[in-house]
Write a structure and sequence with these properties.
Radius of gyration: 14 Å
Shape: globular
Structural class: mainly beta
Number of strands: 11
Number of helices: 0
Distance between the termini: 40 Å
Largest sheet: 7 strands, mixed
Strand content: over 45%
Order of helices and strands: EEEEEEEEEEE
Length: 118
């Protein structure tokens, strides 16, 4: 079955960096776009970044451009999110997502907590 397991979250001071990883299994990883989303307390889940499975093309939410970098390793089945210059407003649970493709469903990981102290 499809599994997405995030890791790398934690507590970091403002201005610091974290690298999140998502290990995927149970499907042909390179066939799917992968994304990172986040949900802050009391707010709706929001898009962070996305990367194409076939081309590696990346997409970012405007507020993350220049600070966050999404990457993937199709051989290892992993997708990563490098987060630099973190701000207190980046505090959230970060989720890895297998994006929908044709009739295939989307899948979510369990999330990893990122806390940025000011």
């Amino acid at each position: 079955q499809v599994q997405l397991v995030e890791s790398g979250g934690g507590l970091v001071q403002a201005g610091g960096s974290l690298r999140l990883s998502c290990a995927a299994s149970g499907f042909t990883f390179s066939s799917y776009d992968m994304g990172w989303y986040r949900q802050a307390p009391g707010k709706e889940r929001e898009f962070v970044a996305r990367i194409s499975g076939s081309t590696g093309q990346t997409y970012y939410a405007d507020s993350m451009k220049g600070r966050f970098t999404i990457s993937r390793d199709n051989a290892k089945g992993t997708v990563c999110l490098q987060m630099n210059n973190l701000k207190s407003e980046d505090t959230a649970i970060y989720y890895c997502k297998r994006e929908r493709r044709f009739i295939s469903s989307e899948y979510w990981g369990q999330g990893t907590q990122v806390t940025v102290s000011s």
